[in-house]
Write a structure and sequence with these properties.
10% helix, 9 strands
């Protein structure tokens, strides 16, 4: 599919007016979670709420990281999601859950995010 990078705005849910832009986040549909450098999250006052979760890396290693909650925006797309507190050496990643929350999909030819279409909903039967 090819990889590409986008800039992503991150904010604390309690103050979405104070935004930090994380440049060049790798859009990674093969990763579930979005990874943001810990210093960015700390600067925004985002605290870990789930600690020492185990992640399996692409090379088979397992590591532990903490997770917090953040507001995220890339272009016209925005959502609220869990974010991993990235450590030195970790990539800044925009994962599949955030893409789903954005209502976006990857256009592999243009290497950009596009609207994924109408949101699906269940029909109540009486």
């Amino acid at each position: 599919m090819g990889s590409f990078y986008i800039d992503c705005d991150v904010a604390n849910l309690r103050n979405t007016k104070r935004v930090v832009t994380v440049p060049k986040m790798l859009v990674d549909t093969g990763t579930e979670s979005t990874w943001v450098p810990e210093p960015v999250l700390r600067e925004l006052g985002i605290r870990p709420v789930k600690k020492d979760l185990v992640f399996q890396m692409a090379d088979g290693r397992t590591i532990t990281r903490s997770i917090g909650y953040a507001w995220l925006r890339a272009g016209d797309f925005e959502t609220v999601d869990e974010v991993v507190f990235g450590q030195p050496g970790d990539l800044a990643l925009l994962g599949a859950r955030t893409l789903e929350g954005f209502g976006a999909r990857v256009d592999p030819r243009a290497k950009r995010l596009v609207a994924s279409g109408p949101h699906l909903a269940a029909l109540a039967c009486g």
